[in-house]
Amino acid sequence: MFIRYEGTIYRPPSEFDSLIIQATIGCPHNKCKFCNMYKDKRFRIRPLKDIMEDLETGKTQYGKGVENIFFGDGNTILMKTEDLLKLLRYCNELFPKLKKITMYGSAQYINLKNLDELIRLKKAGLSRIHCGMESGDDDVLKFVSKGYTREEMLKAGRLIKRADIELSLYYIVGLGGAGLSENHAINSGTLINKINPDFIRLRTLLLFKDAPLYELYKENKFQLLNAHEALEETKLLVKTLDNINSLFLSDHISNYYKVNGKFPEDKERILEELDYALSLDKSNFRSPTSGTL
Fold it and tell me: Does domain 13-284 have CATH number 3.20.20.70?
C-alpha cells in the first residue's frame, strides 16, 4: 500500500521533511498569470475517508515518529472547518510526536473562515499557513489576476495572526515588471508592516512558457527585471519594512542573491548585503530568462 498522489506535487521548500498528504487536488483559483502549477488538475476536495487512509498508510511507511505534515494541494484551507478539525485530530492520534501541521491558504479562502473557526483549527493542531501574498499593490494583484485585493489580504493576514497560527507570506520580486516595481515593493512593505507575519519569504519571478505572463513578455507588454533591478526592488522592500518581528528568508533557487535575517535587528545588515550584491558585476548573476521553463 502506498500513499496516493495525483499529478505533480508541490510543497514549500521549508516542508522538505514533512509527510505530504493530498487533501485537495489542484487549486480552486488557478488563474494567476505567472503560475503554471496545477494546470493538469481540476480542483476538488478529496473524500475525508481517502485522506485518512493515506495518513494511515503514512504511519505504516514512516512509523509513529512523524513530526511534520503538509496538506496539499493548493488552498487546503478551503475545506469545511469540521472536516479539517477531524483531519487535524486524526493526525495527532496517529502521530504522537507530531510538532507541525501546515497547508497553503490564499486570502480569498482564508477569509471564508471566521476567527472562531481559525482558533479551533489552531487548537486542533494547525501550525502554519503558507500564503502567497505575492504583492501588496492592487495594480499588481489585478494585473496578475491574483483574485483578491490588498484589503482582503490584510484581513486574511490579521485573521491568521489573531488566531495565533504562524503565517508564512510570500513576496514575488519583479512581479510588477519594470513599470510597477517601485509601487510593488513599497505597497507590499507597508502591507507586511500591518500584518506582521512570522515569515517573509522571497521568490524572484520566473517565466514559465505555459503561463499567460510569458505571452505578455513575448509581446513586449511585460518587462522582466534584470538581476540588479530585482535587487534594487528587494532593497526598497527591506527599507519599507518597519515595526515587525519577522524572519526574512531568501529560501528559493529563483533568487539572485541569498540574504536572510530577523527583523528588526538584522535590517541594516540585510541592506548592507544587498548593497554588496548590487556592487557585483552582472556576470555574477544568471540572466533574467535563464529560469524560463
Answer: yes
Whole-angstrom Cα distance, residue 103 to residue 101?
7
| Domain coordinates in residue numbering, the chain | 13-284
- Count CA within 13 A, CB hemisphere, residue 68: 11
Question: 224 — phi, psi (to 5°)?
Answer: -75, 140
133-142 confidence digits (pLDDT tens): 999 999 999 9
Predicted confidence (pLDDT) per residue in 227-267, tens digit: 999 999 999 999 999 999 999 999 999 999 999 999 999 99
Evaluate whether 122 touches 164 at the Cβ level (below 8 Å). yes
The amino acid at residue 11 is R
CA R_g for the chain: 19
Contacts with 116 (C-beta within 8 Å, 6 or more apart), sequence order: none
Residue 99 CB: number of other CB atoms within 10 A? 11
Rounded to whole angstroms, the Cα distance separating 204 from 230 reads 8
Tell me if residue 59 falls in helix, strand or coil. Answer: helix
Say how far apart CA 274 and CA 53 lie, in whole Å: 48
Give the number of C-alpha atoms closer than 13 A to the C-alpha of residue 31, restricted to the C-beta side: 9
- Amino acid (1-letter code) at residue 119: I
Q: State if pTM tops 0.85.
A: yes
Q: Is 183's pLDDT higher than 70?
A: yes
